[in-house]
Amino acid sequence: MNELLENVWSKNQPEDLCKVDRDILDEGRFPPEGYWDYSVKYILLAIVQKVFRLRVSWKKINQFHVDATERLRELAKKDPELDECEAMRGFERIWPKLSQMLREPAFYFCIKRFCMDSSFLYTYFVELSGYAPALEIAAGASNDVTGRYREIPECDGGYKMAVLEPTFRSFLQRIWFSQQIMLRRAKSSGWRPNMADDEKQKCRRVRVLFLGGGMLPQLRMYELAPETVSEVFDIVVYDKDPKMPNHLEMVFGKPIQEYGIKYCFTDFDEAFKDSANFGKYDIIVAEGVMSYYKTPEQTQYMLRGAHKMLVDGGWFVHDLQVLEPSMLRCVLALAWRGTGLSPDVGAKKAIRRIEKAAGECGFGVMRTEIDRYNKLPAIVNFWLSKQ
How far apart are CA 272 and CA 346, in angstroms? Predict the structure, then answer.
């Protein structure tokens, strides 16, 4: 775990970590829960409900509404930033969709356990799950039931879930991994933190392309901030989510182009087709993408597309999600179904698959990093170099 705390400029500095990271490392505050209680029983229930076509009664769902609103009122007394009236209106807004989702027993019991003491998790499961903004919760921030984006206070049950959820932990490692590779390239170009303006002008700029960039946490966490990214990086992003502009402005505080970031709200297939992109980028980052391109043909399509857009010696950074209990619970019991996500069965198999495909597509494998946050890996990170 100590390796996770290392960074390009210094080692083991707690200030480089977000609060959620520190609480993950302090297992005394939030002891990890067993796989049975946290995941397996919901997986089994999801299988049983499908086989026997089980449904939760409307009587129980109506009682859920009564209990949930009462708990929200209690939470509003503890959370100074949560207005009770706004919280009630927000809950009623999502209730029609939530009530239908609660008809499935696995979802019902999972939500009843995790959401009752949170003003964030209803929004997460009903509106954000399966989309890039959902991943914000991994770092301890999200949209509460009123729709407002903010840090999750410790009095809210969403904070505990941010610390304990295995898939969230792996997302933090993924952000750290890709950011460190970006900084390594910047360092090789001569850039250092806190350089004088005349020194910055002498550094070669690092061109980075994000495929499916989402909310760009790599530019907001740990050692980078939006205000400093433009000092050394030229950032181009492709993401087709039509709601992304509003989410980005909510998180970045102003239109993202004002930070010098070119964000293309279109499918990254368009990047592959544009000859102006060929041989242009020093780094391509495709986090949370490659598990949607699982077949050999799809994997090669992504690798060959990245290869032609990189400079010689350019780096391709991506990950593969691995099928472990919490991931399977998300797919079977929660709202990740129908997204096209196809996790690999085992970290070692994922590594062998990418090593083979990378060699066939003109890449060398610089480094693979298996999930260090969880006993059963939920993710594998890859750093490839164009040969």
Answer: 30
Q: Is the dihedral of CA 74, 71, 80, 172 positive or negative?
A: positive
Confidence tier at 36 by pLDDT (50, 70, 90): confident
Alpha carbon distances (Å) from 209 to 271, 321, 379: 9, 21, 22
Which are the contacts of 227, defined by CB distance < 8 A and separation ≥ 6?
259
d(CA 240, CA 261): 16
The residue behind tokens 């360092």 is 187
- pLDDT tens profile 318-329: 999 999 999 889
When pLDDT is cut at 50, 70 and 90, the band that residue 108 belongs to is very high
pLDDT band (50, 70, 90) for residue 15 = very low
Residues 168 and 162: beta-carbon distance below 8 Å: yes
On the 0-12 / 13-18 / 19+ scale of CB atoms within 10 A, 212 is buried
Are the beta carbons of 280 and 311 closer than 8 angstroms? yes
Contacts 24+ apart (CB under 8 A), 182-191: 182/206, 182/208, 182/218, 182/224, 182/233, 182/283, 182/285, 183/7, 183/8, 183/9, 183/223, 183/224, 184/8, 185/282, 185/283, 185/315, 186/232, 186/233, 187/8, 189/232, 191/231, 191/232
Give the pLDDT score at 117: 95
Cβ–Cβ under 8 Å, residues 342 and 294: yes
- Give 98: exposed, middle or buried? Use CB within 10 Å, 0-12, 13-18, 19+: buried
Token readout for 274 is 């544009």
Return the closest-CA partner of residue 8 out of 193, 200, 254. Answer: 193
The candidate with the shortest Cα–Cα distance to 21, out of 180, 156, 183, 170, is 170
What is the predicted pLDDT for the residue at 338? Answer: 65
DSSP 282: E
Give the type of residue at 376: L
> 268: closest CA among 277, 259, 279, 257?
277
